[in-house]
Amino acid sequence: MQEHQRYCSQLFVLLVLFIISLYVVPISGKNGSGLIEVDVGVILDADHMVGKVSQTCISMALEDFYALNQNHSTTRIVLHKRDSKGDVVEAASAAIDLLKNVQVQAILGPQRSSQAEFVIYIGNKTQVPIISQATSPSLSPADNPYFIRGAQNGSSQVESLTAVVQAFGWREVVLIYEDTDYGRGVVPFLTDSFQGINTQIKHRSVLSLSASDDHILEELYKLMTMQTRVFVVHMLPFLASRFFTKVKQAEMMNKGYVWIITDGLTSLLDYMDPTVINSMQGVIGVKPYVPKSSKLENFKVRWRKRFHQENPDVDIFEMNVFGLWAYDSATVLAMAVGRSGIGVSKFKKPVAKENLTDLAAIGISEMGPRLLQSLQNIEFNGLSGKFHLLNGQLQPLSFQIVNVIGKGDREIGFWTQKYGISKNLSFSNSKNYSTNKDDLGAIIWPGESNVVPKGWELPIGEPKLRVGVPVKGGFMEFVSVERDSQTNAVIATGFCIDVFKEVMDHYLPYAVPYEFLPFETPDDESAGSYDDLVYQISLGNYDAVVGDITIVSNRSRFVDFTLPYTESGVAMVVPFEDDDRKNAWIFMKPLKTDLWLTTGVFFIFTGFVVWAFEHRVNEEFRCPPGKQVGMIFWFSFSTLVFAHKEKLISNLSRFVVIVWVFVVLVLTSSYTASLTSMLTVQKLKPSAADIRDLIQSKEYVGYQKGSFVEGLLKNKAFDTSKFKNYSTFEQYDEALSKGSKKGGVAAIIDELPYIRLFLSYPKYCAKYTMVGPIYKTAGFGFAFPKGSPLVPDVSRAVLNVTEQNVMTRIEEIWLGKRTTCAEQDGARVTSDSLTLDSFKGLFIVAAVTSFSALILFLSIFLYENWDTLASNDSSIRDKLIAMAKTFDEEKDNSSDASKRKPPTGEGMAVPSTATTDCPQSPATSDSQLAEWIFSHDEGLSTTETSTPIHETIEIVESNEER
């Protein structure tokens, strides 16, 4: 019984203790102080310097955070560290262990992209946030929602690298990168960015982490045989240390080379062996810029002391940006944990099934989504600067550009996304984006050179530029190729050759040895057309082509041309026409056919209008119908020589004739001037004024053999059977002299430089003239391979040559001084015939005048005969017949006649032959004025056409005496 009571007492005590423990002893996840402990895993490479530095930074970050927030924080992160041992499998195993056995709610690390890829995959499956400094762009938070990149994306540095290349104008680069996720991830972004500035990636060199030293040397020797000397290296220190050691050994760290390293290597230069740094002298690098602050300097002091305590055998005590990002990432995680209010760590286990894998058996974190939400968009000022996580990724700010000199790197400038390259980060509001190399500090290039490398060199084994030149039988002033009789060496001369020599020898900022190679057959004949010669560059037979090579579109598909060094255009050479003064029909040529026809029509129309106004009131216009038609033609055409004697009674007639006489005056004056010109200077008129004249008349045309002009003529719809090609100026002269009908040509079509040279000879300029230009071209240029870095430099040199007097001197040597041919003074390249366009205004005025008067006359006539039109007793046909008869009848003007009869008086002699058959004008003075205006007899007239002239003179004298 006592034992039973004792047993019950023990059970009661245990029950009390259990109840007390529920309130006093914290549940799982709490410590004795009542703080909630949040388990967080850390996966770092403990043997790597970045891992060691980051591990110390993470621990100090949490200590600093909770020291500053001890009164407000209800949660505390507990770290569980694992060593990845630099292996992908070890990193994955560590992640599974942390999730399965510890049930961590977040993982910091790993830092290598290859290790982080699988860990991120596990985090997505278990919904546990993974905060990693992996920089490879292939790892995207957009594709992995539980991946938080606590470092800048590797692609963010691409624009800064591109800006450096653009600043120095390098047109070709070679990419060298390690064969890992880290190395491959940034390559597509670099490729696109360089293409945006027209810089070609000529070669990609991929090196394995396990590559032997011999393999590295072999790859370097292959790069030495190439032309490009700008290398962009994207590696981590492990492979880069061996690589740059071999670069130094291969003597590729000498003058003329350019080496640019990316941020992953530039940020870790302090941890590399001094011998490796010595082999990297002159290298340019970019790295994320960390702004200086007192907070950062104080932390570095504390960190050095702490790091030395934890790693007494390590002699390096320099902080790197990865350590600062690890510090800020841990701080961000602590802030997010505090904000999210997460509690006890729990994982939802899957429904029990057989043969579950370790990954499937872990389950899904209940607190992960809440913690992820707190991490998505967070911003604060950390040790690394402004630490802003947006959509799970750290936003980049600016990059520092450094030059490896001495024992480390030296700052030479900065790059920002808004302002580009600059010497400092103090910007004015007016500054724009710039990639000017002058905005960088002084740079010591490989080989301790202060001269900016041009970025390319001639390949080893081919010390001279192979320059192809055309072989031709004529036009030696432009290009001529001969061989030395003793040495058989090629001797190239001519205008184009001298310009090329001047550019290469005196205006390039560096020396380029070259040799001329003729484009010829074994028989010393031309090996093909100019198109064939240019195409040899793309085949690799020449490094350049120099000569009278015209820049045209179809050739630019295979080569790159420099800027032109001659004037552009295609023109025609045609002979002067024979003397037209021997032509029996030359009097017809002053006016074009359309002007002749228009003038004739207006003569007839004006005669008809005057007849319509006069035939009812003027006896001289009243005759049988046949004679009236003759009168219409006679009166209008007599005005051409002002021989009209008929008196005009109607004021409308006078108005129309006054305007028409003015038109005739202008026409006859212009005709006389044009005919005079034809009879004096027409002998200098070209035989063809337009290329369309040659096409329509189906004439033969000539061009220079091998020239692109043949294709141009085909495009102009010329009949190819009418083509003839020539090789010398003498052949040009012979063909033009014969003419198209005698086995020659009607015109020679060639480029302006040849035509101007041809016409500079006195024996040719007196016989031929130039018409055009009829087609635009770019002129002569030097051809180089596609993407050749020589093109921009040679183009700039060509501009310098053409702007200097040296070009004038070369032209005078080979092409002679430009003089005007005296025989061609006054020559015209357009027809002297007058066209209708020149007289449209006159004809419009005459037409408006005649039509206006005619409309007024018809209106008055219809008004006077309105009774006839308004009559209801007749049909329309009868009305029209009646109106026609009325129009044909003579109008009674007896009252007007009486008014026109002058009074009889002393001293006034009235001819006895006066008659009333021809009505007089309404007033004597008006009649006399009209007669004076329209009479042909020197302005002297009478009231009768039959009155002798001497009688009129007597009347005038009698009036004066009176």
Your description of this structure?
It contains 34 helices and 30 strands. By secondary structure, the chain is α/β, with parallel strands linked by helices. The chain has an 8-stranded mixed β-sheet with strand order 2-1-3-4-5-15-14-13, sandwiched between helices. The termini are far apart. Mean pLDDT is 80; it is low at 10-28, 825-831 and 894-962. Belongs to the glutamate-gated ion channel (TC 1.A.10.1) family.
Lay out the secondary structure:
Layout: H1 2-24, E1 36-44, H2 49-68, E2 75-83, H3 88-102, E3 106-108, H4 113-126, E4 130-132, E5 147-152, H5 158-167, E6 172-178, H6 181-185, H7 187-196, E7 200-207, H8 213-224, E8 230-234, H9 237-249, E9 258-261, H10 263-266, H11 274-278, E10 284-288, H12 294-310, H13 321-340, E11 347-348, H14 358-362, E12 364-365, H15 368-375, E13 377-382, E14 385-390, E15 393-394, E16 398-405, E17 408-416, E18 420-422, E19 465-470, E20 480-483, E21 490-493, H16 495-507, E22 514-519, H17 530-538, E23 544-545, H18 553-556, E24 559-561, E25 570-575, H19 593-614, H20 625-638, H21 651-681, H22 691-697, E26 701-704, H23 709-715, E27 723-726, H24 729-738, E28 747-751, H25 752-759, H26 762-765, E29 768-775, E30 783-785, H27 790-802, H28 805-814, H29 840-864, H30 866-870, H31 876-888, H32 894-900, H33 924-934, H34 949-961
Parallel strand pairs: 1-2, 1-3, 3-4, 4-5, 5-15, 6-7, 6-8, 8-9, 9-10, 19-22, 19-23, 26-27, 26-28
Antiparallel strand pairs: 10-16, 11-12, 13-14, 14-15, 16-17, 17-18, 20-21, 24-30, 25-28, 25-29
